[in-house]
Amino acid sequence: MHPGPRAPRGGGLAAVSTALLAMSRRLEVRDVLRTIVASARELLDAEYAALGVPDDHGGFAQFVVDGVSEEQWRAIGPLPRQHGILAAMLHQDGPERLADVRKDPRFEGWPAAHPAMSDFLGLPIRDGEETLGALFLANKRSAPGGGAPADGFTDEDEELLSLLAQHAAIALTNARLYERSRELTIAEERSRLAHELHDAVSQKLFSLRLTAQAAAALVDRDPARAKDELQQVAALAAEAADELRAAVTELRPAALDEDGLIATLRNQVRVLDRAHAAHVTFTCDGVRALPAAQEEAVLRVAQEALHNALRHSEGERIEVTLTRGGTGGALLRVTDDGTGFSPPTVRRAGRHLGLVSMRDRAAGVGGRLTVRSEPGTGTTIELEVPGG
Length: 388
Prior knowledge:
By secondary structure, this protein is an alpha+beta fold. Helix content is 50%, strand content 19%. A 5-stranded antiparallel β-sheet has the order 2-1-5-4-3, with helices on both faces. A hairpin with a 5-residue loop joins strand 1 (46-54) and strand 2 (60-66). The longest helix has 64 residues, at 155-218.
């Protein structure tokens, strides 16, 4: 029976477990790459670590390093090409271990600012037949157990790095799938918005054209009525402009990753308030950061509720509030003082007003959506999501 990898310096199985959990918890590809590199360097006690993801043109689409300062990395220059020993890792199945990489016949030198490296360990990260990347380590710092300087990477290091690479492949594949699902979600949202934009603006422009034709026919016969029709033309043109501004605002990608939920909601409400006749406000109190899925759901429900209120309610005021929920999560409330509606009547008529998608988003994160509305009393939509 082949023995398993020796416990790594400074942490044993706990260190391995921590590294694998850290990789599995990351969702963005770039974060996964950084976590893999940092974990490999720490577990194998190497001075330098790097991970390259190949592109389709003979180079690296991404190259992440650990152990090299930002100043050094900028001085080194452009991303390395797939040549020499780096290329070998992308075209072989197993590890490559060298006592001195500089003496290998495939070695082709480094830029002047590149740090000195000697002993080397690398291997590909593979998912079936596909090479997802290549992981490199250089300059083993100490022998197993610590203390004495190392003579280079060992058999145990190879085994440990192979284990790490197997889990890295899973984490990278999951991150790719996550990013692809987000891209599809954004594409679906934009397709829906483009369809709504086309319908809304087409209706406004059709009405504007008919009204302008009526005004032209009345100019000589009834100037007073022609003047009224021209005022209607101006009003319809303003409404069409409002629809366009609202759609452009929604088509902008949400800045959740950069700005967080609160800042993103505040910015979108501010823009909608400027773009529409209704007064739109946002207040927030005591809300902590939520898991990404919850923040995404809250933002999308708020956008849908605002869209309905601005397009259908004919209200003068729309209030968006975000407060801390009873479960440590968040409570979103969107209230308007518009015409209101009867939810049962809307359902029987086959109209949904986005309620189905809002309920789906709430259910997807373990939340609860409540809709309160009656004709003539305005509408309140509440979403409560749990904390992380």
